[in-house]
């Protein structure tokens, strides 16, 4: 079912510093910050040859990563995203296996404008997994 | 400097259950468990089209992931590994920028038989980063 690793998302306490560090210390290809007000984050993409790193910083009052940064003030890996061909088939397969999908269990439109699901980290080795239909 | 994302390593409290879950629930291509006594872990590789997930489970008394699992009983993402062409050049660049390398600061042979460095998570957004020369 799962295909490529689409991205690894890292929540950071200082977006400008983290982006500069990836560019200057790690020598990576770093994009410009992009506000995503509908998702409550500002994102910087790190383009690696085979996948992406997404640096996440809270945007607005109800950012979904605010609590994570409160618990992890230095930042940390927030989630990993696997690609799937068919998000509804993924939802059905997960449901049949008893894996919990966050929210109401239905796909919603994610930060890349594509349908996504998030799986409950307690069911997946403490790892928040996003599935994105590509 | 950094190239491909070589792998994401996830420490898991039950290796057999985690491997079965990746195979059966997530439908991924899952390898057989491999003991790596020199590194204190048993590893299961999940082969994705563009990178790997490594499920890590403690092996022996002094496993480097035992403490992580004590702090995170459900498991969690332990580190991410970026590829570099020249580990000594990476070490020198990091040192010149004041980034801390774990241990004595010198490359050692990692779990894949190649030279690696680990960077201090406090310097990198709470993320343990491995650099591996490929």
From TrEMBL, chains A, B:
<dbReference type="InterPro" id="IPR051785">
    <property type="entry name" value="MMCE/EMCE_epimerase"/>
</dbReference>
<protein>
    <recommendedName>
        <fullName>methylmalonyl-CoA epimerase</fullName>
        <ecNumber>5.1.99.1</ecNumber>
    </recommendedName>
</protein>
<comment type="similarity">
    <text>Belongs to the methylmalonyl-CoA epimerase family.</text>
</comment>
<dbReference type="InterPro" id="IPR029068">
    <property type="entry name" value="Glyas_Bleomycin-R_OHBP_Dase"/>
</dbReference>
<dbReference type="GO" id="GO:0046491">
    <property type="term" value="P:L-methylmalonyl-CoA metabolic process"/>
</dbReference>
<dbReference type="InterPro" id="IPR017515">
    <property type="entry name" value="MeMalonyl-CoA_epimerase"/>
</dbReference>
<dbReference type="GO" id="GO:0004493">
    <property type="term" value="F:methylmalonyl-CoA epimerase activity"/>
</dbReference>
<keyword id="KW-0170">Cobalt</keyword>
<keyword id="KW-0413">Isomerase</keyword>
<dbReference type="Pfam" id="PF13669">
    <property type="entry name" value="Glyoxalase_4"/>
</dbReference>
<dbReference type="GO" id="GO:0046872">
    <property type="term" value="F:metal ion binding"/>
</dbReference>
<keyword id="KW-0479">Metal-binding</keyword>
<feature type="domain" description="VOC">
    <location>
        <begin position="4"/>
        <end position="134"/>
    </location>
</feature>
<dbReference type="InterPro" id="IPR037523">
    <property type="entry name" value="VOC_core"/>
</dbReference>
């Amino acid at each position: 079912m799962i295909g490529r690793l689409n991205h690894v998302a890292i929540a950071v306490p200082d977006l400008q510093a983290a982006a500069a560090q990836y560019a200057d210390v790690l020598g990576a290809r770093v994009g410009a910050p992009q506000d995503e007000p509908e998702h409550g984050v500002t994102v910087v993409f790190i383009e690696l040859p085979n996948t992406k790193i997404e640096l996440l910083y809270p945007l607005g009052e109800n950012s979904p990563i605010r609590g994570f940064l409160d618990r992890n003030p230095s930042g940390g890996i927030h989630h990993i995203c696997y690609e799937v061909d068919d998000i509804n088939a993924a939802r059905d397969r997960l449901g049949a296996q008893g894996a919990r999908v966050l929210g109401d269990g239905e796909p919603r439109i994610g930060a890349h404008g594509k349908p996504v699901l998030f799986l409950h980290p307690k069911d997946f080795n403490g790892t928040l997994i996003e599935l994105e239909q590509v």
